[in-house]
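User: Predict the full complex structure for these chains.
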Amino acid sequence: ILNVEQSPQSLHVQEGDSTNFTCSFPSSNFYALHWYRWETAKSPEALFVMTLNGDEKKKGRISATLNTKEGYSYLYIKGSQPEDSATYLCGYWGAGNNRKLIWGLGTSLAVNP
Amino acid sequence: KAGVTQTPRYLIKTRGQQVTLSCSPISGHRSVSWYQQTPGQGLQFLFEYFSETQRNKGNFPGRFSGRQFSNSRSEMNVSTLELGDSALYLCASSRGIGGSSYEQYFGPGTRLTVT
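Assistant: Here is the predicted structure of the two-chain assembly.
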């Protein structure tokens, strides 16, 4: 059974704080790692798709790193804003047959103004 | 460009009935994936269709089925509904095989309640 684990489960920070979350996934047969943001009452929205070990991607104040050899990815938010409040999901896509995105349970972020 | 649309948005059914959900992908996207989201289980993959062919299937009973039409629109059917089928059903489209190096675009979901 393939497991994707995210930590912490939830996080409360003050506006302006920087924060980071972790996504752990199987290090074997890696193909791609996805990060999505899911705001309440909206649809999940793609942040990053990462495929190469050592990949670093950035979109505004949000960035992500990928370590496929040890099976983890970090998502960083610099200077959190209330509009960053959402659940952040990671999805692992492995190589081989019957490939599918396996999702973690997400990290719920609340940014207090 | 119009986003992914799902119909209906809300549905209430009774146990034993069947239901059909519809998903229209973004124009030009050939892949449609379906997910079930419940509070304790998170997003669970149901199946993916690409060019009218089912590419992958998750670990759900045969009561859950789907299909994709030539215009890439997809339907999902659940027969003999059970209380545990109450969930948010999301579909997502992508240009290539979903989940590979292509990001997925999600619809707003269909909230199914089984009583």
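The first strand of chain B starts at residue 5 and ends at 7.
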